[in-house]
């Protein structure tokens, strides 16, 4: 004891904290691998008196009996039951007194489950068919065992709350063991004693009432009909019939015994329409107690709110899912009276509404799998109103419960897709809200659209259209709102629908859900729809037209989707579009060409079919642009016509024209244009010529400023207006600036920024000239900036001179003489101040506008380069074996070096890496060795122009890609020498100070060379082994 006091009285540490307690020493290691529990327990009889070994045995078996592991519990229960039934009566009595019934009051792990398992089996053996109580254990009568249970689980006075609860739950589990052993109805008095204990417990502790009621429900199938009638009479007499538990017991009894004679009070059948109002009051937990007729009955206590649903709702649900006499009308009446007008009424509390949401979720899940025809009866007025209000904002008290209810709706439709149309009809109908998603700030309707199938697509579309079609004339504003919501629903219907493969192979008879949505959007956008009353306004049509391109861009997942999108455009009759005769003629020609391309695509092989489908798709989206009034739609249609004719006659220049068309389309900030342009280009990658590829890479050299924007867009538009159609493939129509630009593109960009307007030709390879060109470009840019600033200052001087009626000193000769030297009055000074303020306001406004224009121009150029990079990424992915693909390396490196946008530079680096990976998988192309070596030298020259890490890595990857292509050609050993010579010359230039390149550029080359050497050695070894094997065989 002294040592313990000394250990507890240690002094505090210097920092004021108490020292940590030392752990007790143990004989076994602190960290050991747990041994598996041995389940081969001793089944021998237990002794009357306890010895040391007997104590250890019992402690071990009871420890396992309360384990959370089910296997351990079952093994311990089996050993305990076998041993106890073979033991003398005194030993069994000792275990019942000191162990088993006491263990029911323990909350340790799963003690109640394990102990209940043993007690139930012992009771069955003692008082069941074996009747061991009479033959072997005469003193252990039924009353004696029941008294032991009550004695060992009776809470004492002044117990803490948790211990008291444990005692009552122990007694409840013990009574449930009596019910589970099925011995209560062999003698008349047994059930009455157990029932009396259950009712007393339910009366004393109201929070136990539901558990006691469930034990009674479990006992009903074991008793005879007359005993069930007496049980209900007892419940009625003490007033428990008019409770939620009483309703559940009544319904269970009626389901077990259809001819049951129930007491007159409180009701014969709780589902009878005449008593539903009273049942609703009971289930709301605010029952008015009986008075007058049942004055002698003690008032039943009401329990507090519980988040767990009473078991009565499971029994009620069962009556509607088993297909019995309870039908649609009865469910509708019950749900409206009890749930909608009861739990969701205006006077209902938040707790009652929460319970209503839980009941809705349970019934929705149960009816969806068992009786889906009744699901629509659950969506009643008050419930949907509360659901919408609570889901609308996060600060609502039942917001999470409402969201969980919406999720249960989605899960129900996912489980039973046939519920989609009825559920949508309820959510969007009379009691719901047509703009349900907007009102609830959720995506419930949008999520449900993913379960739309081809079979019910038209039904869903009709359901969505009906509220927005026929409206009264005096609700024009409401009509606009509903039709805008309708447009959004149709768009979501097309984009959310899952692509279902046509397993039957009859594609013509199968309607695509996305096609239906796109057709409806196009029809409402461009056609007069007679069914809309009042007619669709131009504002509503603009909504449909705005959603159509984005919808098409999202549904274009596969090449096969092009056909139904073209069919959707063909089906549109543009009666709501004002078109001249010229435009109508172009439209008719385009539709005719699109039909021919679709037919040709079905008859051609896969390669030509993709090209035909791509052109048809371009026709389709250009026709939509024509309906929208795009100024260049007619010229694009004409270009498409010429492109089709050239491709049909196999005449050159078709790919260049196609690239021009795609660049014109992709320059617009539209998801549809981007998606479709990329898909069409992907189908034409194998037909892209060197000229078309050069035209595609040309925009990458544009400056990322207003000057570059003008070169890419504004000048192109002016040239398109002035360009003669007869000079289609000729260079004679281009100005001198464009010629300079083409020359620069062929050289491969030897200047820092090169515009499409041209900034002079670059030198042909000497680094001194490159530096001079860079200095010239910088000087020119600085000169332009200074010139602009001088103009702005001159304009400001002129404005101030007009206001002040003065001039600059250097303009005395040009200024008029003025003899008026008198001072200004106060009013003139005030007027002068106002004019000066106005001048400086205009100056500030002009300066801000110019900055915004410069920023917008830069963003437009960078965005356009992104789209071009997407095309190039597709090209190198599919055409890695094409010799023309190597011509994109220099433009990609130029982007990495010159761009100010890091995402664009990263995209160029990724394109080079993708090219390298695709080239390894591609077959060896037929390349010109000298051309490839020349390209490598140009890459090395580019690498010397920028010493940044990112650019050096990109240049190294491009150089090694070209080197790999050279080694695949004939005379590999000579090519190795040539590649090494190029790298050696570059290294020598670095050593002489003529070039600056990062060291990893050469390290990558060495590692690459060693890898190729190892591969060559392995190949030689394998060849030698094969030769030796052949010689041995001979």
The overall pLDDT average reads 80
Poorly predicted runs of 5 or more residues: 1-37, 286-299, 501-509, 715-782, 817-821
Reported for the largest beta sheet, the result is: none
Radius of gyration: 44 Å
Number of strands: 0
- How far the N terminus sits from the C terminus, by CA atoms, comes to 95 Å
Q: What coarse outline follows from CA principal-axis ratios? A: extended
Structural class: mainly alpha
Sheet-strand content, in percent, reads under 5%
Helix content: 55-70%
Specify the number of helices: 42
Sum up the structure in keywords.
42 helices, mainly alpha, 1034 residues
What report would you give on this structure?
By secondary structure, the chain is an all-alpha fold. Helices cover 65% and strands 0% of the residues. The protein has 42 helices and no strands.
Briefly summarize what is shown:
The protein has 1034 residues and is mainly alpha-helical. Mean pLDDT is 80; it is low at 1-37, 286-299, 501-509, 715-782 and 817-821.
SSE order and pairing:
Layout: H1 2-8, H2 52-65, H3 70-85, H4 89-103, H5 111-127, H6 132-135, H7 142-153, H8 161-180, H9 188-204, H10 209-219, H11 225-238, H12 244-256, H13 276-283, H14 312-321, H15 328-343, H16 350-370, H17 381-392, H18 399-415, H19 420-428, H20 436-440, H21 444-448, H22 457-469, H23 476-496, H24 513-526, H25 538-555, H26 561-571, H27 581-603, H28 606-628, H29 633-648, H30 654-666, H31 671-683, H32 690-697, H33 706-722, H34 736-747, H35 767-804, H36 826-878, H37 889-898, H38 902-921, H39 929-943, H40 949-967, H41 972-992, H42 1000-1033
Helix pairs in contact: 2-3, 3-5, 4-7, 5-8, 7-8, 8-9, 8-10, 9-10, 10-12, 12-14, 13-15, 14-16, 16-18, 17-18, 19-22, 22-23, 23-24, 23-25, 24-25, 24-26, 25-31, 26-28, 27-28, 27-29, 28-29, 28-31, 29-30, 30-31, 30-32, 31-36, 33-36, 35-36, 36-38, 37-38, 37-39, 37-40, 38-40, 39-40, 39-41, 40-42
């Amino acid at each position: 004891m002294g040592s313990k006091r000394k250990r507890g009285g240690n002094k505090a540490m210097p920092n004021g904290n108490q020292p940590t307690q030392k752990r007790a020493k143990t004989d076994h290691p602190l960290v050991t691998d747990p041994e598996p529990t041995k389940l081969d327990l001793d089944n021998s009889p237990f002794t009357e008196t306890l010895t040391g070994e007997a104590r250890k045995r019992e402690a071990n078996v009871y420890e396992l009996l309360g384990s959370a592991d089910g296997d351990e519990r079952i093994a311990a229960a089996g050993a305990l039951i076998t041993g106890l039934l073979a033991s003398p009566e005194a030993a069994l009595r000792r275990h019942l007194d000191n162990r088993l019934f006491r263990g029911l009051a323990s909350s340790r792990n799963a003690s109640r489950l394990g102990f209940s398992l043993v007690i139930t089996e012992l009771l069955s053996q003692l008082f069941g068919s074996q009747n061991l109580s009479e033959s072997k254990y005469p003193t252990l009568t039924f009353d004696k065992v029941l008294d032991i249970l009550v004695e060992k689980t009776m809470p004492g006075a002044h117990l803490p709350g948790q211990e008291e609860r444990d005692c009552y739950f122990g007694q409840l589990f013990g009574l449930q063991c009596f019910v589970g052993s099925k011995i209560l109805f062999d003698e008349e008095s047994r059930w009455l004693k157990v029932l009396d204990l259950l009712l007393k417990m339910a009366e004393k502790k109201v929070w136990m009432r539901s558990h006691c009621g469930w034990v009674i429900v479990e006992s009903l199938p074991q008793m005879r009909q007359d005993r069930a009638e007496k049980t209900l009479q007892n419940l009625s007499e003490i007033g428990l019939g008019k409770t939620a538990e009483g309703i559940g017991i009544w319904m269970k009894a009626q389901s077990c015994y259809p001819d049951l004679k129930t007491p007159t009070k409180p009701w014969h059948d709780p589902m009878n329409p005449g008593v539903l109002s009273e049942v609703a009051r009971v289930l709301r937990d605010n029952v008015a107690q009986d008075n007058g007729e049942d004055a002698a009955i003690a008032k039943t206590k009401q329990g507090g709110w519980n988040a767990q649903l009473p078991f009565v709702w499971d029994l009620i649900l069962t009556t509607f899912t088993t297909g019995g006499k309870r039908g649609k009308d009865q469910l509708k009446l019950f749900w409206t009276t009890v749930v909608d007008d009861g739990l969701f009424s205006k006077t209902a509390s938040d707790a009652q509404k929460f319970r209503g949401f839980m009941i809705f979720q349970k019934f929705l899940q149960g009816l969806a799998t068992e009786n889906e025809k009744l699901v629509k009866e659950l969506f009643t007025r008050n419930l949907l109103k509360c659901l919408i209000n609570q889901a609308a904002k996060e600060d609502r008290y039942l917001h999470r419960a409402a969201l969980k209810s919406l999720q249960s709706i989605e899960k129900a439709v996912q489980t039973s897709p046939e519920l989609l149309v009825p559920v949508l009809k309820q959510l969007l109908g009379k009691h719901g809200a047509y703009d349900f998603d907007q009102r609830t700030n959720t995506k419930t309707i949008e999520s449900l659209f993913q379960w739309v199938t081809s079979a019910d697509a038209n039904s869903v579309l009709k359901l969505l259209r009906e509220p927005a079609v026929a409206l009264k004339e005096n609700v024009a504003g409401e009509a606009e709102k509903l039709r805008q919501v309708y447009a959004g629903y149709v768009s979501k219907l097309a984009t959310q629908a899952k692509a279902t493969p046509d397993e039957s192979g009859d594609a013509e008879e199968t309607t695509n859900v996305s096609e239906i949505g796109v057709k409806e959007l196009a029809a409402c956008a461009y056609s007069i729809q007679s069914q809309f009353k009042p007619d669709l306004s131009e504002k509503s049509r603009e909504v449909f037209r705005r959603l159509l391109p984005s919808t098409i861009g999202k549904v274009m997942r596969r090449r096969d989707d092009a056909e139904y999108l073209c069919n959707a455009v063909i089906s549109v009759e543009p009666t709501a579009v004002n078109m001249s005769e010229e435009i109508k003629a172009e439209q008719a020609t385009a539709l005719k060409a699109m039909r021919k391309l679709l037919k040709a695509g079905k008859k051609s092989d896969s390669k030509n079919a993709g090209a035909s489908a791509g052109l048809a798709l371009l026709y389709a989206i250009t026709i939509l642009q024509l309906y929208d009034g795009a100024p260049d739609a007619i010229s694009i249609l004409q270009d498409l016509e010429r492109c089709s004719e050239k491709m049909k006659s196999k005449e050159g220049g078709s790919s260049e024209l196609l690239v021009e068309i795609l660049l014109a389309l992709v320059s617009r900030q539209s998801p549809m244009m981007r998606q479709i342009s990329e898909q069409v280009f992907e189908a034409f990658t194998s037909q892209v010529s060197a000229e078309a590829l050069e035209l595609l890479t040309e925009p990458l050299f544009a400056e990322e400023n207003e000057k570059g924007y003008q070169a890419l867009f504004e000048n192109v538009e002016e040239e398109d207006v002035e360009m003669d159609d007869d000079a289609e493939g000729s260079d004679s129509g281009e100005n001198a600036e464009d010629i300079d630009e083409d020359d620069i593109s062929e050289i491969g960009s030897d200047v820092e920024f090169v515009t499409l307007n041209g900034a002079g030709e670059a030198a042909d390879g000497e680094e001194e000239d490159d530096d001079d060109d860079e200095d010239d470009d910088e000087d020119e840019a600085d000169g332009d900036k200074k010139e602009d600033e001088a103009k702005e200052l001159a304009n400001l001087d002129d404005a101030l001179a007009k206001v002040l009626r003065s001039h600059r000193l250097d303009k005395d000769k040009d200024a008029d003489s003025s003899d008026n030297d008198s001072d200004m009055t106060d009013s003139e000074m005030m007027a002068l101040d106002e004019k000066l303020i106005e001048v400086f306001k205009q100056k500030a406004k002009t300066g801000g506008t110019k900055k915004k224009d410069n920023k917008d121009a830069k963003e437009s150029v960078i965005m356009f380069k992104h789209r071009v990079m997407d095309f190039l990424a597709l090209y190198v992915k599919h055409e890695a074996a094409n010799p023309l693909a190597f011509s994109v390396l220099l433009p990609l490196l130029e982007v990495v070096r010159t761009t100010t946008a890091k995402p664009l530079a990263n995209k160029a680096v990724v394109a080079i890496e993708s090219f390298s990976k695709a080239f390894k998988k591609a077959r060896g192309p037929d390349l010109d060795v000298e051309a490839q070596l020349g390209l490598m030298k140009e890459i090395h020259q580019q690498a010397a122009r920028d010493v940044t890490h990112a650019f050096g890595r990109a240049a190294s990857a491009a150089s090694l890609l070209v080197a790999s292509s050279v080694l695949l050609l004939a005379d590999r050993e000579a090519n190795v020498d040539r590649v090494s010579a190029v790298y050696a010359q570059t290294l020598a230039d670095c050593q002489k100070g003529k070039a600056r390149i990062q060291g990893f550029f050469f390290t990558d080359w060495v590692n690459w060379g060693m890898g190729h050497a190892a591969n060559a050695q392995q190949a030689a070894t394998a060849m030698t082994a094969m030769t030796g094997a052949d010689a041995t065989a001979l």
